[in-house]
Amino acid sequence: MTAPTAPARESPAAGPPPAVLEIRGLRVAFDVPAGRLPAVDGVDLTLRQGEILALVGESGSGKSALSMSLVGLNRGPRTHISGEVDFGGRNLAEASESELRSVRGKDIAVVFQDSLAALNPLHRVGAQVVEMMRAHRRMPRERAMDRAVELFGEVGIANPRDNARALPHQMSGGMRQRVMIAMGLANDPAVLIADEPTTALDVTIQAQVLSVLERARADHGTAILLITHDLGVVAEVADRVAVMYAGRIVEQGSRDEVLFDPQHPYTIGLLGSVPPIDGPVTDRLPAIPGNPLTGVDRPKGCAFAARCAFVRDACEEPPELLRRDGGPGHLDACVLPGSVREAARGAGRDPVPNERGRS
What we know:
By secondary structure, the protein is an alpha/beta fold.
């Protein structure tokens, strides 16, 4: 992964495209031996038609818990979900399992991180795509197979008809990931959730997978929620970025706003830990001190305060996600004044001591 250096994109003259998925006050908690773990803690997000919204953050920040709750894939007796997930006037957070089955794979599709685990090892990949289509449409099996082969060609699988007869273990990781994307696009969904789709792939295959996602957005108008920790991937394909920490969104805005004018110390820390592609080579990259919150107890104020080098007494109050020093759509949840934020950005790869004695 290298530092994001993509050029700024021009904003379209027209207004923003319509929202296809609106998340309001979403909370997801899991019962664990120590109590109730708040994996997602009051998230508001809007996903618009034809855009790629990247959700970034460290492992354990709540990204996958949020994305899986959108289509009810993490429901269970020890899971507690509240809030609103508005899709076409329906609140999916309160929808029944039968309602969710009618949406999953048809209107909202998911590309999982581990394609080998997600695909049935006993069925040929083409047959699995056929099954996905016929679960939501009335169509002959032969026609569905022809469409599956066509999709395999669209996502860049060589010899698509022959490879449709392959079992998952007979394909490379990159090919399996393309099968997953083809399966996700099989019913022309309005929303595609891609959970770490490029993890464990080499950079060449990563670029090919990202190209497939961008083509899906361009050709079908699909809105994509991209879950990733790779800021290089974000710089390559994202339109907007939301940064998540300890179950909360701490910053969001356009790709260029977040990556090139970060406002929250956590975002600044993430960007500072990415190796640059130019300039002097450092022996050791800086790291954000401490560890992410993992327990059931969460602070009343800023969850990042214990790891922040610029913490103040004001950080003990619950932060709101507001526009402060960025552009109109650039929101952050940091109460520090602009001068302190500027100092944080200026510190770059030379972190300053925590002013309240924390490290």
